[in-house]
Amino acid sequence: MSNTHEFSDSTFDDFLDCLPEVEPPARMKDAVFADIDAAGVDDAEVVELPRRRWKAFVAVPAAAAVLVVGVVAAPQLLQSSSSDTTDSARVEAESPGEKSMHEIMGADDLMQGNAEASGAQLDIVSSASMAQSGAMVDGQPHLADGMGAQVWAVSADGDMASAGVIGQDPHDGVWMPFDGAAVKVMVTEEPVGGSVQPTGRTLATVILASVG
Question: How far apart are CA 155 and CA 210, in angstroms?
């Protein structure tokens, strides 16, 4: 089957009549005559096209411009969607401990401190307005058998409470929440089961400092 379509003059004229009227710029005609003079054509016959012939000439570039704009805009939309997906995935990948720590770090009255307790590292954050504090624990304390590093949080009123005992197993980003806000943190060597109050040697003492 042939895909060739034949159009009569009347059909093509009807098609041109559907296109908008566009007056060709005068500089276009001047450019055509300049090219003729440059080519050295002396007896060329100039035929004035009917006005409607300009419709098709102008309409085609306009359609092409719409197509180009659509192609350029698409990658921008895809890039934005990809960025949003990446940000969402990053938030969902956070552990509950990391989320708690980041929430405290966003407080206007953030206080921070760092401690090293015989091989265990503590990154401590606290906020009085949120009444929350805690430490992100990494590493492992190297102590006598059956002993651990007990963490004590001291409030602004001087009250001291145990936050738990860090055992001698390896730790990688383990969140240790404290009870309320803290202004000072102590770490002492205690039995793995924990003590009611500090009794062993002090491994670290940190006074938290305001940030900003």
Answer: 14
β-pairing verdict for 147-154 and 184-191:
antiparallel
Neighbours of 52 (CB within 10 A): 13
Please give the sequence-ordered ranges of beta strands (E in DSSP) within 55-177, or none if there are none: 111-117, 120-127, 132-139, 147-154, 160-166, 171-177
Q: What distance in Å separates the CA atoms of residue 103 and residue 179, rounded to the nearest whole number?
A: 16
pLDDT tens per residue across span 184-210: 999 999 999 999 999 999 999 999 999
Cβ contact 181:133 at 8 Å: yes
Global model pTM greater than 0.70? no
Rounded CA-CA distance 196/38 in Å is 104
* Cα separation, 158 vs 39, whole angstroms: 99
pLDDT digits (tens, 9 = 90+) for 171-181: 999 999 999 99
